[in-house]
Amino acid sequence: MPEERTKRRAAIDKAEGKAPSTQAGEFVREEIDHVREGKHGARSTKQAIAIGLSKARRAGVALPAPKAGRTSKSTRRSAARDSARGRTAPNRTPSAKRSRATSEALEREPHAAASKTALSRQAHASARTRGPTARKAAAKKAARTRAAHGTSTERGTSARKGSARKSSAAKRRTSAAKP
Hints:
This protein has helices at residues 4-15, 20-37, 45-58, 73-88, 96-107, 116-130, 132-149, 152-177. The chain is mainly alpha-helical. The chain folds into 2 domains: 4-130, no CATH class; 132-179.
């Protein structure tokens, strides 16, 4: 079951008119966080992403099943089943036995699938399959978004300044408390 705050963030994305894939990204992020926190593991980054997408579909995100030729028939069928579950009974309590079996199986898996390196490798591989035109369009959109929200270096600098102020204030408090 996805966490309430994940459902809430996805609902906000939907209200803002964002694409279903963006809404589903919240569930994928939750899954990656679970692997990083050690709640469970994943055999690969792709598996962690797939679990997140499945949760999104079951929670009612209108994410279509992948097209024929992109994935196996069983994956498409599973995605269609998840979407149907999301449309009919998104809040139904899952079977305790199945849930426990899945959790125990995932707990035995490694946690490296959520590392920065693994995610970077997955993103790079995914981008390669899309072709140069799609990559160029994505880069242009990223540049536009960066321009609209300030450059990453500006955001990083202001964030560092804020944390530096907080840490210096904390040091002053602790030194003042000492006799």
